[in-house]
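Hello,

Following up on my earlier ticket. Below are the two sequence lines again, exactly as submitted.
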Amino acid sequence: MKLLRFSLRYLARNCWQTILLVTGIMLGVAVVVAIDFSNASAKIALDLSTQSLVGKSTHQIIAANGGIEETVFVNLKNTRRLEYASPVVEGYITLPASQDQALLLLGIDPLLDYQIRDIYGQDTAVLPQLINSFAQPFQAILSKDLASRYDLSLGQMLTIEFEGKQFNLEIVGLVTSQDPLAQQSLNGLIIMDISSAQEIFNRQGLLDRIDVRLTEDLEIAKLTDSLPKGTLLIPSNQQSVQVNQMVSAFQLNLTALSLLALVVGMFLIYNTMTFSVVQRRELIGYYRSFGFYRREIFLMIVFEALIIAILGTAGGLALGILLGRQTIGLILQTINDLYFVTTVKEVGLPIISLVKGLILGIVATVAVSLPPAWEATRVTPRNAIIRSGLEQKTNTSINRLVILAIILLIAAVILLAAPIFSNLWWAFTATFLIVVAFSLFSSVLLKFILPVIAQVVKRFFGLIAGMAVRELHRSLSRTAIAISSLMVAISVTMGMTIMIESFRNTVDIWLKETLVGNIYISVPNQFSNQSNAVIDPAVAAQILEYPAIASWNSLATTYQNTPAGDIQINVITNEKIANERLFITSTMEEGNIWAAMQNGAVLLSEPLANRLDLTAGDVFELNSNSGPVSLSVAGIFYDYASNQGHLLIAKDFYERHWVPAGITALSLDVRQGVDVGGAVNDLILLNQNQLQRLVIRDNKTLQSDALSVFDRTFRITDALRFIATIISIIGIVSAVLLILYDRKREFGILKALGLSASEMWRLILTETGLMGLFAGIFAIPTGYVVSLILVYIINLRSFGWTIQFQFDWIYILQTLLIAWVASLVAGIFPILTINKMQIIEVIRNE
Amino acid sequence: MSNEKIFLEFKSLSKSYLDGARQKRVVLDNIDERFFEGEIIGIVGKSGSGKSTLLNLISGIDQVTSGDIELYGKNTTGMDERQLTTLRRNQIGFIFQFFNLLPTLTVWENVCLPLELKNMLTPQDYQRAESFLSEVGMVDRKNEFPDKLSGGEQQRVAIARALVHNPSLILADEPTGNLDEQNAGIIMQLLIRLTKENGNNMIFVTHSKDASMYADRVFTIMNGKLVQQ
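Thanks for your patience. The regenerated structure is below:
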């Protein structure tokens, strides 16, 4: 108890230091909790959007491509292979009145569906009501919550939009569920009779899937045998698993970045705790001479860390929840943009995230305080006041750091190169080891270069400036950690910046290479990566009659269900496709590719080739309605449209084996001399009177829209980088404050000797500025290596694409500037404190 | 004495503190005194009598409670921080009981620091620094750092540092308080000799009874009053 009292008193007497420490932990924990909370929420949202409507179904019958003929269901039912089954037609629609959220429109047969899904509630009396509700076409039921959110009531009309066409639905029923998770699923759902849904989705006679309930393996085998060609039986949770796999790399990257903030926070704790021990060596010496055991000294320091950890972590959890509520929106937006449409926006607080944050914050803080606590136990009453001994010891241990750094580098290289460590976490671990190794090297370098720099600075800028450099060297035990922690944060920021800029630049070049048409037309779709919305053929025909069009090409996007997951197939008519793609590898001259594509050659985007583990020259099979079709890979091209990748196939060949897919996009080239902007305006005017609303954009607008989606996906990354930098600034403020406080007597002497306030400013700013500058200089090679790993290893492993590395001198300037400004800012508060200090007080303290 | 030039004058000088129990404690009580050019003044008194406080008031690193201090004809009590800094930089040389050499600077650099602050950077100025180091017997160790020196050696360097920029007044606060008897004598003799040779004034504070051996006049601080022995 007495130890705890000592710890509390020390923290209270050094309240600024305590506040900085608590803030550092708080921000670190907050970021980790926010990201974990957002990731967990996003996962729940995905699960709710994909799985909770699965209900009691165990499997789904799906078509390999296109849809299942209704007759398949009827035949299966007649053969009594399906006891519990419900046919489904579904799609995402939007409400024109409120474009902010996608809703899933579920078309079902109420007589069959109640056996599968729980969404109708416990009250069986609802069922007849439901059946009556669907007696008329275009009638829908929705959840009470959803109705109240949009201020809708029974009997009112609800306008929905699908693929640019609007439909009016009459609300004839409101449902609710006792189960909170099912209720959240319901809140993103409109339920309709299957025939009306088929009409809206233009899928007359077709089903998207049949949900079935099978209990025995034998049943599964029998059903599999009796399925017609082109249909598959898959477990009901497969989609959920696939979506979670797709999203996991993105989430893992965010988690790693959030841990960075915590790591920087840990550097800060280690730095401060080490310093607090150094600062109290004399006091600890007295304690020892009074009869304190080493164990008690150790516990006293650990108690301090524990108190800070508890305060910081508690604050971090609260802040994390607040931050998480913001980041969840950004994460779900990115998931919607890139992977999957989520209909759930808000979920409860995942307690596990809080528990993780709690454990991480407390354990990490106490863990990093153990070395300084151990150091404190080494203090003897005799050596307590010998400061030079401590610095000497630091100098000796610094030499050992070289060996440690080399070991870490070797370990990192093994982790990056060895195939058994291909998991993404190993790549992040290796990156972390490299950053730590570089920070150790920087400490060693400081030891050797600071004396030289001090000589040079003294020669050119005078004794006082030289003093600043020499002081950095003298206090290497503290300055090295402060510089290292700033270096870590800044280098990772630099690495991320180079990666993002390289990525952006690559995407920019890729867009210019790929988008060569003058005008692009597609169906409005708030889900940018789910672009299989079909242009109405009549609408397309009218558009193509526009006289200024010289030539046009179509794109039909469709999805093929395979055991390896969905494959996006882009059916194309563009004969010049080979000239408009940058190939990583190809088996033939570009001029011959289109001819080969007429006979079953296909082009694969890099992410798809990586996902399917295919290379140019390989042959693989895809199921069609008439059986498997062999396709040969003619080339693999760079592509950044989605990390799931896609396949390019010639329209003529595709239609020989599969049901023709509707056109999802048109690329138009206008006649020479025609103003593209004017043509776009004409087509927009023309479209205003058509049945289906289309998005008509010129080349430049489409490129800039694509880049804005790109920028949106990196918004959260920017926020995390910013927070990590703030923590490192707090770290350096704390370090500078402590270092300067330790030297207050020295400043007192200087003031007594006649050093003016402005000279004091210059002296301290030179010192802190140099700390920042060194951190910036060391961050440059570190950041460069981090960026190489991010670009060539982590991105490739996460998303399957190769980014073209691009380095610019501006990054070096930026890094130096951030580090330098951060450290200068960090110096201001301590200077104000030092300048207020009364000389008499510090000199008298003899 | 009345024809000699006054370099320092206390006019109704008082200094009081609030002690730990928030009680007002008068350390210097309404002192009036004059000191003349060329004088070496010794101030003695018990611990806590206000000796060091008096030096700190003269140099402007502590503030008077009431009264005035005139140093070389200028009232220092009305000076702002900048003026006081300039005064210390140009006219005062400090010697402390615990030497207070800057640990990051070598012996040579410690001595040159006041020159640097005063912008005295000519070869003659450095020559002067060299000769002072020679005078205090530390020229051979000019590249050493303070933590390698004994107390006596550190104080020798401190003397050189206090005199190098040719200040008008040397303020020495217990210059031998941390030295053994033999070293104390040597240091005091050195300090007095150099002060006189360079024509400086000096006020030193000591609890030693030998003050009269070195000072032209010796004062005792008793109950806040300055009493000449």
